[in-house]
DNA sequence: ACCGATTTACTTGACATCATGAAATATTCA
DNA sequence: TGAATATTTCATGATGTCAAGTAAATCGGT
């Protein structure tokens, strides 16, 4: 509790707020260059790695499945994603990125300079320190 | 360019993504406890410090002024914010937090444990290192 | 092994919020 | 007077929730 209001902690909290804002600016800007919203880019990024059931997309996005229906609908209309039946369970629909979708996702990743370009200013040792501090902050103890 | 794809950089980028996600979860959870959306909590937080013209709220939020109208409308309906004329310019409306609004904003800040509680696990020296690394990453060179 | 009840996956519809852009109004400023 | 600024309104679309509906899988008792 001693850390609640000291200057150093507040500075770090504010810097993290700035990181969050910067991250979103970059992400939305990159998405907009492909006429995608942030949510659409996020889902396309997930599906470019592996097809996923609608349910699991909702879990990843921490939202209701009914919401995912609309997002995938819009991506499907644009030919970036397609729905396939799951041979193992006919209730399930697997959303999968099309070839065009995968290409768009790749371009999106390449355009996402955030934290990659800025990190270039840090040495390997510094990046290691940053990684370990972030891990501990997030409670992901190094195994 | 050597930093584009190395493992260490990608790890840090992913950790930052996790930080961003965690930040939003905490923020939205804290806001929801007061039946506020993220955007409403954000505006209330701004106004709890100082009254602001609608225009400046839009600049801070990086959105259109017409959007701010609705957000402030909802806060005003709930008695958390009020609109006042600006004596210096009759075109301008100043949005100001009411006493209730300031109290809600304070409770919101206190409930926002993100990065404050986790940072407790870091020593002063470590927090200083983290602060300086984040500053350099954000291009805010220490003056 | 069968069959009805429950659960699970997804979609649809109604609704609120957030976001943009264009047009309207009021006021300031050159 | 005419251009620029601050705000609002309106139309529209994306995102989010929740409740209800359909289809398919699974469970439990006989």
TrEMBL record, chains A, B:
> What keywords would UniProt list here?
DNA-binding, Transcription, Transcription regulation
GO MF terms, alphabetically ordered: DNA binding; DNA-binding transcription factor activity
This protein's record includes keyword NADP: no
**Signal sequence span per UniProt?**
none
Q: Which GO terms describe its biological process?
A: response to stress
Ranges for domain HTH marR-type come to 9-139
Name the source's superkingdom.
Bacteria
Which SMART domains does this UniProt record tie to the protein? HTH_MARR
Q: Which InterPro entries does UniProt cross-reference here?
A: HTH_MarR-typ (IPR000835), MarR/SlyA-like (IPR039422), Tscrpt_reg_MarR-type_CS (IPR023187), WH-like_DNA-bd_sf (IPR036388), WH_DNA-bd_sf (IPR036390)
**What is the name of the protein in this document?**
MarR family transcriptional regulator
Species name: Streptomyces globisporus
């Amino acid at each position: 509790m001693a850390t609640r209001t000291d200057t150093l902690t507040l500075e770090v909290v504010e810097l993290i707020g700035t990181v969050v804002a910067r991250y979103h600016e970059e992400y939305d800007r990159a998405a907009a260059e492909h006429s995608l919203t942030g949510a659409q880019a996020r889902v396309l990024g997930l599906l470019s790695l592996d097809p996923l059931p609608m349910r699991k997309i909702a879990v990843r996005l921490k939202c209701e499945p009914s919401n995912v229906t609309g997002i995938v609908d819009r991506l499907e209309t644009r030919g970036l994603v397609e729905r396939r039946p799951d041979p193992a369970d006919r209730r399930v629909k697997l959303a999968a990125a099309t070839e065009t979708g995968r290409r768009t996702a790749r371009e999106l990743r390449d355009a996402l300079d955030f934290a990659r370009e800025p990190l270039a200013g840090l040495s390997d040792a510094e990046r290691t320190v940053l990684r370990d501090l972030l891990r501990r902050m997030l409670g992901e103890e190094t195994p």
